[in-house]
Amino acid sequence: MNIVVCGALFLVCFTSANAQKSTAETPTPAPAPEPDHVNLTQLLSVAGPFHTFLNYLQSTKLSDEFQDQADNTEEGITIFVPKDGAFSSLKKPSLSNLTQDQLKSLIHFHALPHYYSLSDFRNLSGRNPVPTFAGGAYSLNFTDNSGTILIDSGWTRTKVISAVHASDPVAIYETDKVLLPEAIFGTDIPPMPAPAPAPETAPPTDAPAADKGKSSDSSSPKSSPSSSHKRMISKLGHVATAIAGGALMML
């Protein structure tokens, strides 16, 4: 009886030890690595210079919204960023008269709620107009001209100068002009500069005006030599006839 009890206890202990050993040897799965996030504010502060755009982005409190779109959505984000020189060269219309809501719409207008690589714009141009982050009437038209991406906002016609960052889910492209929407600035778009006038053609040097006057006078019936000669011959004919008639009467 004691032998049976001891054997049962040994079996229980052995099974428990093996179970603990098996549990201890099972590796715990490593946590999935967190995706690398692009800090938009930090990137724009060292690139460019894009200080003016970054100041507008922060003053309108849209930096957090753009960052959330980049980090927490599957769509990603595409941002068109003008350099500081584009803002300083903007004389008319001025951005200083815009309200805070209009400034927010202007900055929203520079972003698309989707990640687009440069090669994506080739197909995107067939879906014009493309809605921006501002929504509604705030849309852009794109044209892929042999690899050069042209952007038309209605008021502004510009192009992508370079890719500051282009890795899914964030694309940031530099432009040489500020994108101005018609929804803010209206449809009274400044006309394109007129082409330079063609140079005037000088008159030929071998045909002076004096010669033209002489030519005109010579073509007049009053000054035509042939006409005067005919009248002289006619008068002489009348005189000769009169003389001949008087001679006959004297005979």
Question: How many H/I helices?
Answer: 10
- Rough outline: globular
Through-space gap between termini: 205 Å
Strand content: 15-25%
Structural class: alpha+beta
**The biggest beta sheet, please?**
7 strands, mixed
Strand order of the largest sheet: 2-1-7-6-5-4-3
Rounded mean pLDDT is 77
Number of strands: 7
Describe this structure in words.
It is a single chain. This protein has 251 residues and is an alpha+beta fold. It is 43% helix and 16% strand. The protein has a seven-stranded mixed β-sheet. A hairpin with a 7-residue loop joins strand 3 and strand 4. The longest helix is centred in the last third of the chain and has 26 residues. The radius of gyration is 47 Å and the shape is globular.
List keywords for this structure.
251 residues, alpha+beta, single chain, 43% helix
Short note summarizing the structure:
The chain has 10 helices and 7 strands.
Write the SSE topology:
Elements: H1 2-25, H2 40-46, H3 51-59, H4 63-72, E1 77-82, H5 84-88, H6 100-108, E2 111-112, H7 121-124, E3 130-131, E4 139-145, E5 148-152, E6 157-167, E7 170-175, H8 182-185, H9 209-218, H10 225-250
Parallel strand pairs: 1-7
Antiparallel strand pairs: 1-2, 3-4, 4-5, 5-6, 6-7
